[in-house]
Amino acid sequence: LAKTTQPISMDSYEGQEVNITCSHNNIATNDYITWYQQFPSQGPRFIIQGYKTKVTNEVASLFIPADRKSSTLSLPRVSLSDTAVYYCLVGDLGGYNKLIFGAGTRLAVHP
Amino acid sequence: ETGVTQTPRHLVMGMTNKKSLKCEQHLGHNAMYWYKQSAKKPLELMFVYSLEERVENNSVPSRFSPECPNSSHLFLHLHTLQPEDSALYLCASSQDRGGYEQYFGPGTRLTVT
Q1: How far is A97 from chain B (nearest CA, A)?
Q2: pLDDT tens track for B33-80
Q3: CA dist., res. A29 & res. A18, Å (int)
Q4: Does A97 contact B99 at a Cβ distance shorter than 8 Å?
Q5: CA B21 to chain centre
Q6: In terms of CA atoms, which chain B residue is nearest residue A105?
Q7: Closest to A98 (Cβ–Cβ): which among B4, B48, B90?
Q8: How far is Cα of residue A81 from the mean position of the Cα atoms in its chain?
Q9: Mean pLDDT, to the nearest integer, of A70-84?
Q10: Lowest mean per-residue pLDDT among A1-5, A35-39, A58-62, B75-79
């Protein structure tokens, strides 16, 4: 499983766009990139998943460059309720899922 | 009820007690997972069940004993725990083949005294 590196923490203000970058230099050909969000004392929640280029859903966008050695989760116009820990995970989709969570990025959104 | 549910939500137990955590998923998934999240630590995968068969056991002490009687239910039996076992225990489920999206329950906050 590819190892990921993310910033430990980030601060932002309401209404701003937040970009969280994840490095995964040894990503394999079959690996996908997935992001989860976790609020205190709750289980993680799936946000978005992609393989290459750009993926967008109603919550976020995921940008993946051609070499796929990094990815950026973009949260448009954050609000206080986006304060959470964001995890980047990399792995293939075959078989059962063995998610290896890192420390994640603790995002604090301020008024 | 939808999604993944866990009971109890909070549990306080002594080191000599025996208790069980319960997880139920209503999503039709056939893979289920137990995770442990200690304070200020990343989530740690404990066990994985696929089609009711245990396929992963990440060197978890024997005082934690999982049970998966069917694809919708998962238990974690606890006995003679240590204070360092105090943590948030999370259950998750997913489709067995394909897909990387796991659905997590709200967790059980366990305190061992």
Answers
A1: 6
A2: 999 999 878 888 899 888 778 877 778 999 999 999 998 999 999 999
A3: 28
A4: yes
A5: 7
A6: B42
A7: B48
A8: 17
A9: 97
A10: A1-5
Q: Is the dihedral of CA A56, A61, A66, A70 positive or negative?
A: negative
Which residues from A are below 8 Å from B45, CB to CB?
98-100
Distances (CA, A) of A8 to A40, A81, A107, B42: 16, 19, 9, 12
- End-to-end Cα spacing for chain A: 38
Give phi and psi for B74, each to the nearest 5: -140, 135
Test the B interface: residue of A99, A100, A106 with most B CBs within 10 Å: A99
At residue A80, φ and ψ (nearest 5 deg) are -55, -30
**Residue B98 scores a pLDDT above 50:** no
**Any chain A CB within 8 A of the CB of B75?**
no
pLDDT digits (tens, 9 = 90+) for A29-55: 888 899 999 998 889 999 999 999 999
| Chain B residues close to A45, C-beta within 8 Å | 104
Alpha-carbon span B19 to B42, nearest angstrom = 24
Nearest CA in chain A to B55: A96
The CA-based angle A74-A93-B42, given to 5 degrees, is: 60
Give residue for tokens 């799936």: A46
